[in-house]
Structures
1.
Amino acid sequence: MAGNTFGQLFRITTFGESHGRAIGLVVDGCPAGLPVDEAFVQAELARRRPGQSKIVTQRKEADQVEFFSGIFEGQTTGSPIGMAIFNADARSKDYSHIADKFRPSHADYTYHAKWGTRDYRGGGRSSARETAARVAGGALAKLFLKSYGIEVRAYVSQVGHLSLPGSYQDVDLSKTEDNPVRCPDMGMAAKMERFIKEVRKAGDTVGGVVSAVITGCPAGLGEPAFDKLHADLGKAMLSINACKGFEYGSGFEGVSMRGSEHNDAFQNQDGQIVTTTNHSGGIQGGISNGMDIYFRAAFKPVATIVPPQASVNEAGEAVTVEGKGRHDPCVVPRAVPIVEAMAALTVADHILRQRSARV
Amino acid sequence: MAGNTFGQLFRITTFGESHGRAIGLVVDGCPAGLPVDEAFVQAELARRRPGQSKIVTQRKEADQVEFFSGIFEGQTTGSPIGMAIFNADARSKDYSHIADKFRPSHADYTYHAKWGTRDYRGGGRSSARETAARVAGGALAKLFLKSYGIEVRAYVSQVGHLSLPGSYQDVDLSKTEDNPVRCPDMGMAAKMERFIKEVRKAGDTVGGVVSAVITGCPAGLGEPAFDKLHADLGKAMLSINACKGFEYGSGFEGVSMRGSEHNDAFQNQDGQIVTTTNHSGGIQGGISNGMDIYFRAAFKPVATIVPPQASVNEAGEAVTVEGKGRHDPCVVPRAVPIVEAMAALTVADHILRQRSARV
Amino acid sequence: MAGNTFGQLFRITTFGESHGRAIGLVVDGCPAGLPVDEAFVQAELARRRPGQSKIVTQRKEADQVEFFSGIFEGQTTGSPIGMAIFNADARSKDYSHIADKFRPSHADYTYHAKWGTRDYRGGGRSSARETAARVAGGALAKLFLKSYGIEVRAYVSQVGHLSLPGSYQDVDLSKTEDNPVRCPDMGMAAKMERFIKEVRKAGDTVGGVVSAVITGCPAGLGEPAFDKLHADLGKAMLSINACKGFEYGSGFEGVSMRGSEHNDAFQNQDGQIVTTTNHSGGIQGGISNGMDIYFRAAFKPVATIVPPQASVNEAGEAVTVEGKGRHDPCVVPRAVPIVEAMAALTVADHILRQRSARV
Amino acid sequence: MAGNTFGQLFRITTFGESHGRAIGLVVDGCPAGLPVDEAFVQAELARRRPGQSKIVTQRKEADQVEFFSGIFEGQTTGSPIGMAIFNADARSKDYSHIADKFRPSHADYTYHAKWGTRDYRGGGRSSARETAARVAGGALAKLFLKSYGIEVRAYVSQVGHLSLPGSYQDVDLSKTEDNPVRCPDMGMAAKMERFIKEVRKAGDTVGGVVSAVITGCPAGLGEPAFDKLHADLGKAMLSINACKGFEYGSGFEGVSMRGSEHNDAFQNQDGQIVTTTNHSGGIQGGISNGMDIYFRAAFKPVATIVPPQASVNEAGEAVTVEGKGRHDPCVVPRAVPIVEAMAALTVADHILRQRSARV
């Protein structure tokens, strides 16, 4: 219950702090007989890794994952899969100057208020470093989904005020990895990259939006009432550091539409029931209907900035906080694989849950 | 795991279909010693009840709740609280014409795809009637929160294109119940009401936004990683029928801000640590910081409309669906108490979880 | 977490006190498409019902179950099944004399210590009346198991010092219901019945043992580590009121055996792998091996007796407690259907869990 | 749900196989501010370690635990505690001869039936090696309980037919660690040791019983209905490899007693409510009453024996299995710290759960 477990049947439990000895996770419930492509897991981690381009944090971490258990002769056995990534570049000294200060819009104050203590080095448990464990677990979920023909693809659709118009159908998602921003529109990507560099030069940060689409999802995934598929997807996204909003299908814009315009008509297309439009975002009554599932997640500007900021310390005294640590000017390029990982874990979980639907 | 339970420590399990014998719930984990004001529970249900005004569905249900257990001499005992609301006005005949048809943007098709069977009367389990059980459970959570000085207040901030500018601080929330729309701005409420009536006259429906604020919440609620307070709030909202999006604090708009502008500076105000701005929406690193928690939930237009719609039936044949059942032209006025209920349940749960934070 | 839910995927949540308005439960996760024989559910309740014979409590309760939801046209729909049994014969006055007294070996004191309050009427939530809800839920589990050819049968194998020698294979389990004791050996049953009557005449009570066998269980049910099939069965039994011990297979007696004697040799019997002996009780490494699963559950003598007993009241003062309420002289005859219900729920849950074992 | 997690609020998730790279666990929910004596954790592991005496398996494992996270400046932070023990002495070759054979009364066959695959080396996940992770987690639970004055002590009370008469009150538990059998009666310990050596010399194995007592436990721990304190203790014990039975308080012997004899009278002892006898074993209605909690767990003879045994292989062919691996002639001496660990984890969990009992 302490919040470090995600999923019911395909579930991960993560551990680790930014500057501790290792971060890692246990994947429990991954079905037996899944071939594990360890290189793929490592490649997914590389997509999230710091230092991968000029527009992300320059902290150096190889993020080499070690597999401890649950895999035998290249396949999962049904036993829990323990994994760890040892922290290589833990410059604890970088953070001593903020040991008793509460950095604005970080978790320093709230962690202190909750536990009366905290590992202040690099944000400790609240560091986005924790998401590496999610990506490792999500990579296994992706391999599982692959066997169902399900694919999760995310991309950057907005950085600051620069917003890609249209939907996921208007872009070529195979181009997402072709630029450091992970925006599949090359023109927009170039603008975003320039903008992020400007912001970084000013010692500042900016927010963004990650869009995602899940294709190949069969009808029938999701539960009624509370564990609706989109509710679990929403929680998955909102649990990612810096995420402030989630919408799926027509989302906030759908609010202004009429029912007659918003409703997705069913039709029989060569024996398969499909909808002519997809404002529902592939989910109706909380359960997938076989159409593409698409959603958007909003990320706030990173809280670590260079200019001095007014704050208080543990004693409640006024202090000045200065951003010395290495940080991302914009979180969304590296958030793309995290969004995919969390979506993959959510869908994998619901595939297993679906297996109990009928006698 | 079948999705009908919400919460970890303060938890509800709901049951019931639109046209079955009764809907109801079990509240498990409500602490002992809480005085239960049964009239308050009933009053909350009245806020959600059909037929309460001209702009909501005219289905007639008294929604009289019966308490089965867990309360003794006016107080909770720590035992589970069973409650039921018997269905009075179950006109099953109304629905025979859609027994094998999939109504567009309803859950008919997905339920059929998942379970191979469904109670088609009034949407069965997918009916918004299920939310009455949430409101009953949420009323107990509200009573629990009251003992902590915590209050949850929601209101309608948008209907179709009619959007109330500004934030919750710009309106007088004591006026929310003064009009049938539940918009605290009387001028805007009048416009919204007229608009909803127009839409209804056209046999159509329209979406809306419910905004909410939680005041009096102490710092320290929420868990790191996956069970962040806002992630659980988001899931709670997204689990409500017709909800398509959730954002808290600066939300999607915060994306375009710079970190230097978005960060909330801490200051010591008469011995209490507060923030000068509140783009964080009262939650940092997933944990409450003692400031107001505010969020918005988007609701799509109701799927039931009067004009004939093209669809298919279970056999995959093209059919026409006509809206005969009683329905809401706009869901948000009645969604207000549901949003409050789900938020109250979420916070109550995290208050209990917080009790395990320290040795 | 408040303890009123059993099972992970096939799960029940019960509510209700001895003298409240109703007891009941929600069955969540029962797969769709199961024909529900309501008469069978009622018949199972009749086996647990008070007043069914001279050797059980004479409290009069019809124990008529009402189905609220989750069943449509005679079949489960996958939606939660709400059920209630209204309390007919709630003589609250019977218990006013013990309102502030702690009855020896009852839960009065511990409930008071835990919650600071309690519904003292008839033991409130701690009353064995709660087990009626288990039997109703277990009846659905039995119907589910039946479709797999799995059967759970329990019987009384010991009352006080009167112990049936041999194993479940030495008796004809079809005779269990032929006598009020529910001991399949007619001679022993007669002795036990006489003994129970003697004990009752003395105003006293006595304990007993219920034995059970699960036949038709496929290999592969159960999880490694903590949720071993026998561990969940053990918890299920120990959760029944008055249960003090559990053993399966060779149990406590197996302790004195040598490995060479205790090991069950595998052999191929017409293409099926079986064991020549079954000291393992059908479970190896926590997972079923396809052989019969058998176990025993020990029940202490009922705490309610007629002779005056020394005790204390809430103020800590010495008081005398006298047994006025109607009670069972021996719990095991009525425990038989409860043991079966809890075992059926456990196996049903593991059948659903097993569905996620492989890719 | 895959069975590798124990506990609700103070919870462990374990991973690892006998011959994989590492075993380990995540402790989630351990409250913040607990001083962690790492040497104590290591000392507990030493009590379980193979090779510690002549009467246990001679497999050589240092069982050196590494702490990955959740501890900062010597104290828990409330973040999950990752731990691992690397496997040093993994002689995979020892097991190639049984790669496709099902060893009698091992989990080989059931794992194969469940997952269609298995790590056959040393039993893989079904190896008792997994219990090292439990002991590490249990050591943290013990440190937590210590701050409450609660102590868990287990000892060997039976080996084969050699049974220590009397109760835990008749022995001096401070002597348990004074001999390799972990029986606090030196005379009996010597007999047991001789007996185990004889059995080992014959290439055979024998079972035993571990008794335990929990002192200092406050009244009020445990939940009604399903999560009774003794039900969770029972599940904890039964989840340990080779455990076949559990009883608490009067247990199976209490069956033959009369209620008038079995009931524990309450009395006021200097302002504290106590019972004059303790047949209840410190638990009434599933909730602790402040008296000593005591129980017994039965362990079967270890399945690995030296003499050749008839069995079958994956193809269903008759084969002979010979015991070549290193193994324990009797499991109970090393089971003592495991029993203590699981009991400590159970009580720690219920202490946290108890914190939600009252408003």
Note: Residues 5-354 of chain D form a domain with the Chorismate synthase, AroC fold fold (CATH 3.60.150.10).
2.
Amino acid sequence: MVNLADVARQAHVSQMTVSRVINHPNLVSDEVRDLVNQAIKAVGYQPNRIAKALVNQQNYVIQFIVLEDIATVEPNYAILLLEIAEVLNQKGYTLEISTILEPNSHVDGLIVSGWRDSDLERLSAINVPMVLYGQAPTWYDLPYVDVNNRMGTSLATTHLIEAGYKKVIYIGMTMALPFVREREQGYLETMAKHHLVSRTYDVSNHSHDAEKLIQNIIAHLPKNTGIVCATDRIALGVVRALKAQSQIPENYGVVGFDGVFIDQITSPKLTTIKQPFRQLANTLVSNLLNQLHHSELKTELIQPRLVKRDSTRQV
Amino acid sequence: MVNLADVARQAHVSQMTVSRVINHPNLVSDEVRDLVNQAIKAVGYQPNRIAKALVNQQNYVIQFIVLEDIATVEPNYAILLLEIAEVLNQKGYTLEISTILEPNSHVDGLIVSGWRDSDLERLSAINVPMVLYGQAPTWYDLPYVDVNNRMGTSLATTHLIEAGYKKVIYIGMTMALPFVREREQGYLETMAKHHLVSRTYDVSNHSHDAEKLIQNIIAHLPKNTGIVCATDRIALGVVRALKAQSQIPENYGVVGFDGVFIDQITSPKLTTIKQPFRQLANTLVSNLLNQLHHSELKTELIQPRLVKRDSTRQV
């Protein structure tokens, strides 16, 4: 059994330093932390969770609750989940997964995803440190972490305008969720800023619906139109409808949103707004751990980035 | 705080019966179990895990280890993970997720996915009840649960033959993994059984590679050919290459494999071999729990089913 002493020997530091890195990483320099963490890895040391819990009165367990219906789950979750697991594992925490809103009594904190507005009342009543994945109404005072959805569609809209598409339309979703409103808002604001006329359509978040919409409106859609899509899934249907006439990116430009999996399987490859899942995972975890240490409530929006591919003109 | 007595009152049974349902569900009738479980749900009772652990010397924690690179993770995992979480939650177990092969000392058992042959040596050395997701070489004596891959491609091949496609080819994957070999084998065996000439191609598991392959061989591909694809992702590329000429399903029939997410977003909709993830989750969990109770090693292959859609002729 590898112990603290082995790590200390490997890192050429005292056992107390190793203990400090494990239990109070914020109190040591980056240099020492890296050195000790490398040694921990090298000798294969596993901090004893129960011993840690006794020292810190923590269990080192974070629960991730997915309230979304499994049937509707998108690949986004797999990525976010595994990123969170990796971040927590590195910090000596364990990640538990649950599909029901009943936090186990031994968890130190919750990350809640796939919630609806109707869940927020119940969530605010739970007396455990918590961070939501996804932008929540501010009156609940629940800290959340999300991608900056408004900035994302703003980047998409600006890109299409700069690429010279004369008209720019938006295809959004028929769902009354904050991120849906935010994504639409980012388009509307950017159009207004450029003194351009907005035009929005709504579909369900299915590629076949988006495909049908384009087939229905294509006769009234002038050439040289840019299409901002609320999701890659919608963009996939749009691309499919337009590709039959090989009109991408010359006559029509298409930008999606999410940048997970679907953007890899469209043809032509999709220009999209990429959600930074690694950064989202890091921020969700550090937000929660901050709460554990200082009871700090903080809400953060992470900047997405535009990935230019073949569904829009090069600028 | 809701307790055992509340559940007993709600179910009109004794507290001992409730305790038996929670701790030894196998010893009570289905009827009593359902009754008590409904009462547990109705009053919102949470069995005290620590109390349970003391009685049974179990921690009621199962760890799911994903050894696959996060970047290559497919939507399949999100589904399987959440299904397993749900099954375990219902049984009073907690699911932990980890991306590294270091089982926590407090877990009762491991479900390991995304492993490679080179991991099996290390896995066999771990002295914790374990079940692998994915067919493993039998000489390691590690129990696994998988979909019956061979049966899947056999169903696909038979369907194309019965739909009257004269020639049936197979597009497999350039990966030396058991499930890859099994899927190819299912095609080869079925062709031999029907005294038909086999023809296999290999691509990487990316739709763009499959698309390119079809574009390269289409000149030599006679009309009335059926194409068995090792994955939906490959099938997606095949469909895209063939759709340009609107030749599906009249001249070419295409069958995929997996039935998660991608099959929903292709056009035309994909005939595919659907992996029964709910059943896989249930079997992985019950296999592991059987080991906990009787040290039984058991390997199971779950039957997939053919879902007929628009990429093959109706028979």
Note: The mean pLDDT of chain B is 87.
